[in-house]
Description:
heterodimer; A: alpha+beta; Rossmann fold; Beta-Lactamase; 7-stranded mixed sheet; 39 helices; 44% helix; 23% strand; disordered N terminus; B: alpha/beta; 42% helix; 19% strand; globular
Amino acid sequence: MNESLQNKNSLNNKKSAEVRFIVGIGSSAGGLEALRTLFGCLGQNVPMAFVVVQHLAPSHKSRLVEILAQSTHLKVKEVEDGERPETSVIYITPPNADVYFENGHLRLMEPHLKIGPKPSVDFFFRSLADNFGSSAIGIVLSGTGSDGAHGVRAIKAAGGFTISQKASTAKYDGMPRAAKHTGAVDLELSPEEIAQELSRFGKIPRRVQREKSEPADDDHFDRIFAILEREKGACFANYKPSTIRRRVERRIIATRCASIKEYAEYLQNNPAESSNLFQDILISVTAFFRDPEAYEALEKHVSEKIQAKQNGDSFRCWIIGCATGEEPYSITIMICELVERFGKKLSLQVFATDLDETALEVARRGSYSRASFDKFPPELREKYFVTYEDQLQVRPFLRDLIIFSRHNVIEDPPFLNTDLVSCRNVLIYFNQSLQERVFKTICYSLGKGGILFLGRSEAVSGHASHLFQVQDKEARIFYSMKERSGTILPVLKAGYSDMPNPGEKKHAEREESEAELFQAMIAGFAPDSVIIDETSRVKHTFGKASEYLSFPAGEVTVDVSRLLPDEMGKELPSLLYRVSKSLGSAQGKQHEIKQNGQLYLVQMTVAPLKLKGESKQYLLAFAKSPKLPEPAPAYTSNGKPAEERTRELEKELISVKEQLQSIMEEYQASNEELQSLNEELRSANEELQSSNEELETTNEELQSSNEELTTLNQELNVKSAELQVLYNRHQAIQNAIAYPLLIIDEKLNLLDFNPSARHLLRISESDIGTQLRSIPTPLDFTDIINAVGKALREQKNSRFQYQTKDRSFEIQVQVFFGEKNTVAGSVVSFIDNTEISMALDEARVIKSRLASIIDNTPAMITMKDLSGVYILANNRFCEVMGKKPEDVIGSTDEELFDHVIAKQIRDTDFEVLKQDEGLQMEESFFIGGQTHVWTSSKFTLFNARSRPYAVCTISLDITERAIRERQLELFRHIISSANSGAVILEDSGNGLAVSFCSEQLCKLLGVNSSDLLGINLEDFLHSIHMQGKPRSVSELAKAIEESREASFTFTALMPRGEELTFELRSAKIDSFDDIKSHIILSIFDVTERLKDQQIILSQQEELSRYARFSALGEIAAGISHEINTPLNVITANTDILQRAVKMNKLNDHLVIQSAQDIETMAKGISNIVRGLKSVAGIDPGTFEYASMQKLISDALKICQLRIQRSDVDLQVEMPNGDLMVRCYAIQIMQVIINLVNNALEAIAGTENPWIKIVLKEQDEKVCVTVTDSGNGIDASLTEKIMTPFFSTKKMQNGTGMGLSLSRAIARRHNGDLVVDPSAPNTTFRLEITKDQSRSMAV
Amino acid sequence: MSAYEKSPPSIILVEDDHSLARVWKTLFEMLDYKISCFHTGLDLLRHAHEIGNYDIVITDYYLPDINGVELIKEIREHAPSIPAIVLTGSHEEFIKDAVKKVSGCHILYKPLNMADIEEKLAEIFSHTSE
């Protein structure tokens, strides 16, 4: 919906939402909750204004408006003086003010009561009722006290609707209950239900005020009245219709019936509802001295009356519709005061009657709330009431003056001879005719000049107005006009309780008019009769039956037998009896009556009336006939003429009758009074009885309670004794505890302590109960207090260390719990742990010291448990092993090192464990790429139970030292075993002296080393038996001493006669630091070497000789082989030829073939020879220039045949011209032949064999490379093949010396023969230096 | 005039000198020997599966890739009982020893003529014909 439309709607709503109901809500303690719920559940559109009267402290700034505004959509505001209530608004009464309505406007005023709740709910409700009547809805919510109880009655009386909060839903049920007790509450609901109910109110269609009733409704109303009359014996037919309707409607709403019809059904089916309806109709509001001005006026009139009385007279007073009794008490008080004032001694009788039993009970109780006394003169209050808290109780003497009883003023006969009748706010309920009747009744009741006191809005009107004279119009005081009390009472109309058909009830008024019609008819034709019921009550009269009826003095009755003249009255019962038995009619005898001076005879006939319904009714008909004059009277015993006597007697009789009558009347009256009293007493008695029963019950209960208490007491005694025992034990324990103990409650107060605590903390009994904080002790409690506080909060025990000057304690805070598991306190104990603390501190220091040592020592320290897991490894260990500490600890040797090392380590561990003492050993491991040597100490660690638990190893790295030692060892060994002597001379102050002499030298010289020790250099040199003496010994010695290094060679004659050659080397080391200066002499026996050299020289000679031979040999071998093969072919061929001849297979082809073969072979042989010749022409021993090209081609000639025969492709690359080289030509040729032969052998039989020979000049060298189609030689074989006797194949060339010799030749020529391993094919390279100027070794 | 009752033996000849091989072949065939020539040990071994079809192997000692004795040992893997003759020009002891060590292996010295070969063949096969 867009805004404008919304506005329009709301405007419309506003217009149509007239305030149809004003809802007054009274509440006190607990009311806020109820209000919030109530308003929270209310819908949006309720055509009501709400006024909240919430008891507030006068000084308190109320936030009620804000709080309630949060709970509801409705507008909430504080009451402003003079404002008109609007619909859907909640008005909140401000504190310290009373709120009320005036002409429909809200008004505020100062609280009218000094004492009592403010604002006053009763006060407000009364004004609400006065202003809005049936539009008022009163709601009493939670609260203590009884404010509002009065108020709801007022609202009800005004035709409004009342609701009280259901006691079970109210936080405080005082007010709702009090309201309910007044009987003036229509509904008891929970706040949510109240909201619902209010919404329903809003939905009830607006009722147009009707003066006349709808026919259909009338039927239902009749039915309702009939039910009501039957149940309650009260007929409301003549009550003001509007009033009755409203009341009925209220009940309809209260019972949630949808219509009058439904309610009539409901009423029919629920007997209890009749009581509710009854109550509702009767509800009226009353107060003490209601309308005080009227009372003042009344007082004047009554005082006149009282003053006129004599001592001993009675003052009778009748209050009609006394309701809850305020009025009778008020009037009685007034009268008492007057009586007292005028000092009269009168007997005061006050009859207070009402239809409403409930109200009468209240009246009888005589207990009223304070609030009722707001218009009460204070001085009288004290006099006539006893104050009990907020209730005032009528004093007994006052109570005794009043008789309360149930009385229906319409039906029941009145009290007689009353001085004052008060009938206030009763007649307003009655219609005109009823009112008239009541007036007549009252008139009847009052004595001469009796006072009628009416309610504010009432007046004597209509037909009865002639009965009274207005005395005070304002105060509604009237005087009775009649002479004396008791005239003909107005006849009573018949009721409706026996209508045959409930559905055919007619309305009272209409009935009346119809009845009058009938009356008229019957009056004409029917005999004078009355209809009576089985109790002889007159129901109806026809004709002039009233002539026969007269009312006696005293309490009026409608028992017809009393209304009839004596004789007839006495006869009636028997007639009735006869009728009831025979079911026919019964006729009585003739009776004589006097009417208007005439004598008549009357005969009664009683006949049963056959009517539907249960109750029996009878027709009592009167037949009148005139009395015939009597015959002449006879004389009487008096002597007087009989007539005269008769007359006299008659007169006497009449007067006696009259007297009797009056006596009877009086008797009747007192009887009535007695009856009334009796009833009163009976009810009082019953009350007392019930009270008594209650008391008895209470007494029983008390008795049993008493029993229980006694038992409980016994139990408690036992418990108490046990408790005492426990307490004693507890104390003993507490005191026995050697360490200080404090017991603290949850609020940190000291509860108890033990002797140790007393001493330590300097506390005494006087400190018990005080806050821990405030106890004067020498110790600082701050930490303790904090810890305790924390422990209490978190409900967790704690402990912490606490230091005093000289001792340290472990403080334990233990929380303990009370009932319901809540923290009740804590126990604080101080456990002295000074020694332990110090020990711990020391241990800590030691531990850290130890750790520091372990970590910083250069030694490696490890500890392993029995399973070999490392539990400690210091930094050094980790460094050396190249591991991280976290990797080492928790691992085993197997995991950290390789298997070998690990085993090594573990084995030593087991060794150690086997024995008690530790082991010292040297270990060496290969770790991290180098060998480490350590000196280790391994030992077992024992635990507290002397069981081994770990092996500890401490190792110092002595690798370097070990290496050095070993080196030294080696050195010594080397020296010792070397074929030399070593002598060390040291200068230890006395000049150089031998400090060491090697074994070998000693052996050689044939001396012991000890002989040589200590001698000086010269002597030593002498001892060597030097021969030759090129220089003198002393010169030698000098040379040695002066120069840093020197060497000499000499020969010496050995003791065994052989001559040896020695080489002497000396080294001098000057002193530095703390190393003394010394000389080291190395003496080498070079004899063998020289010999060897010579041998080598001679060997070389031989070798070259051999080479020469071998060269020739090579060639020879080569040649022989070369020649051999062709020779084989030749012989084979000759063989072929011979055989062919023998076998006659010779043919030309064969001959030619063979011949060719032979020729080829022969040519080859001649080539070889030619080659040989050229070779032979060369002087093997001359070292001359030769042409490399020629050499190569000559060599090739020698190999040519073979080359041809093996189908090898030969390539030769040689530069043009002659490359002259000085060399031994034969030898070079030999090399080339060797290479070519080798190549030929290697590739023979392979596919596509070829040999390539290349000659080139390179730098200063000449190179000849011989490459064959072979795959190259394996690199690892390269060197080997150069060695003598090595050949991968057969030593075809005889000695196999080929390559090595060739190499030797090359070398001799300042060159070399090498294999080129990188070449893809086998390649030999011969290099010869061109310039052979350098001399060669021969 | 065959010296044999049966047909003349079939021969495998291993000789690296092509000329010589050719001449021998001519000679043997003239004498109605069935003969197959190979020039290297490898060459023969490639045809190892055929060796069984022959009666004898005659090989040079000095071959380019293997010596004759070794070759015979190799052959024996394929034909365990085939006789063999080793030809050599060298009278070295070690060759003699090597040949002796191999059963069914004989030696002949170069230069030789047909008569020497025939004599040896008869000697070998007279044993076998028994």
